[in-house]
């Protein structure tokens, strides 16, 4: 999906009371998909403009966009983000780095300077934020009764989980301990009243999902990352035999294990699965039973975090996370890796 991000920011006094506004439009017809606005307290115009850009890119990512056209009337932000102007101010360098990190998560981002007359929508949102009259769509948590709630469940333990081996596409069943974990998490999930469960096609997820007691469907895009030649190996074994390849993989989501799949590729299909879930279960609660990599990628996007999260967040077998997705593009992460039911 291609979208247009229009963003603006301002400060009354520079520095002074500041705020930003951002609009995300469908590039095919110009319809508004999301709005963002927020008051920033006392700061400068430039900080507010960068904040608008970051909010717009974040909203575009939450919508699952692959291509983004950014339009702003800030010559400074446009020229700096395209690399034509240097960023001398330390505070702006940090904001530009945050925007660049978001930018790297799309297939393509293009920047265009536009005159203020063509940026009236974002400008109006920024002024509303500065006036303290934010639109409902810009609040951090819209009405709970319209959210699609996903209960993200990692499958129970397998023999390969216990041995800390890569078991991406290997169809390994739950171990005895894993079945006990699956029963515990299923009871916990059932208490949250999901209308359905959507599972990876692999046995360890299907076995876990079946215990929840609701209709179960399969979503192929929720399958674990294909670790290629590393399947069945421990991290230490991979480090010993594939040291350079491992370092490259740890350093970039675009790098795949030999014969396998990159996290960037996994992310594309996981976002596609999320689109399907939001369209098929609007305003409902759904259990999503999957694996470490797809769940981490969903949480990375929901938290607007960097790729560093993928190698720093630990997800236990049968742990659950909860994310609410709102029709206006808002996202609220409520729980991450909750394992209270296993204690």
TrEMBL record:
* Catalytic residues in the record: 155 (tele-phosphohistidine intermediate), 224 (proton donor/acceptor), 224 (proton donor/acceptor)
Pfam families in alphabetical order: His_Phos_1, RVT_3
CDD domains, sorted: HP_PGM_like, RNase_HI_like
Amino-acid positions noted as binding substrate in the UniProt annotation, renumbered to this chain: 204
SUPFAM superfamilies for the chain: Phosphoglycerate mutase-like, Ribonuclease H-like
Kindly give the InterPro entries that the UniProt entry links to this protein. Answer: His_Pase_superF_clade-1, His_PPase_superfam, PGM_Phosphatase, RNaseH-like_sf, RNaseH/PGlycerate_mutase, RNaseH_domain, RNaseH_sf
Q: Which GO terms describe its molecular function?
A: nucleic acid binding; phosphatase activity; RNA-DNA hybrid ribonuclease activity
Q: Which SMART domains match?
A: PGAM (SM00855)
Which domain of life does the UniProt lineage start with? Bacteria
GO CC annotation, single:
cytoplasm
Q: Which residues form the RNase H type-1 domain?
A: 1-139
Q: What is this protein called?
A: Bifunctional RNase H/acid phosphatase
Question: Taxonomic classification, please?
Answer: Bacteria, Bacillati, Actinomycetota, Actinomycetes, Micromonosporales
């Amino acid at each position: 999906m291609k979208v247009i991000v229009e963003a603006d920011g301002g400060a009354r006094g520079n520095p002074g009371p500041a705020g930003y506004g951002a609009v995300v439009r469908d590039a095919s017809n110009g319809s508004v998909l999301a709005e963002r606005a927020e008051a920033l307290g006392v700061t400068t115009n430039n900080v507010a403009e960068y904040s608008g850009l970051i909010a717009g890119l974040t909203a575009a990512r939450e919508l699952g966009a692959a291509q983004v056209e950014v339009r702003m009337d800030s010559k400074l932000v446009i020229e700096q983000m395209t690399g034509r102007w240097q960023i001398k101010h330390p505070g702006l360098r940090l904001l530009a780095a945050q925007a660049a990190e978001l930018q790297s998560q799309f297939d393509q981002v293009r920047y265009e300077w536009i005159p203020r007359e063509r940026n009236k929508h974002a400008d109006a949102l920024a002024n509303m934020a500065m006036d303290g009259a934010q639109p409902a769509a810009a609040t951090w948590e819209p009405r709970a009764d319209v959210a699609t709630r996903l209960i993200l469940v990692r499958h129970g333990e397998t023999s390969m989980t216990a041995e800390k081996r890569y078991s991406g596409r290997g169809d390994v069943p739950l171990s005895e301990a894993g079945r006990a974990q699956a029963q515990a998490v299923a009871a916990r999930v059932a208490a949250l009243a999901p209308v359905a469960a959507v599972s990876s096609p692999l046995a360890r997820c299907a076995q876990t999902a079946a215990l929840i007691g609701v209709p179960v469907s399969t979503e192929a895009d929720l399958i674990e990352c294909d670790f290629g030649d590393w399947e069945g190996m421990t991290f230490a074994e991979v480090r010993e035999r594939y040291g350079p390849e491992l370092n490259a993989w740890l350093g970039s989501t675009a790098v795949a294990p030999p014969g396998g799949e990159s996290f960037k590729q996994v992310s594309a299909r996981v976002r596609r699965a999320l689109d399907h879930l939001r369209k098929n279960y609007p305003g409902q609660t759904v259990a999503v039973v999957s694996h470490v990599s797809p769940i981490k990628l969903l949480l990375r996007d929901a938290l607007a975090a960097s790729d560093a999260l993928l190698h720093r967040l630990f997800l236990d077998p049968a742990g659950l996370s909860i994310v609410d997705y709102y029709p206006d593009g808002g996202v609220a992460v409520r729980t991450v890796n909750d394992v209270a039911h296993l204690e």
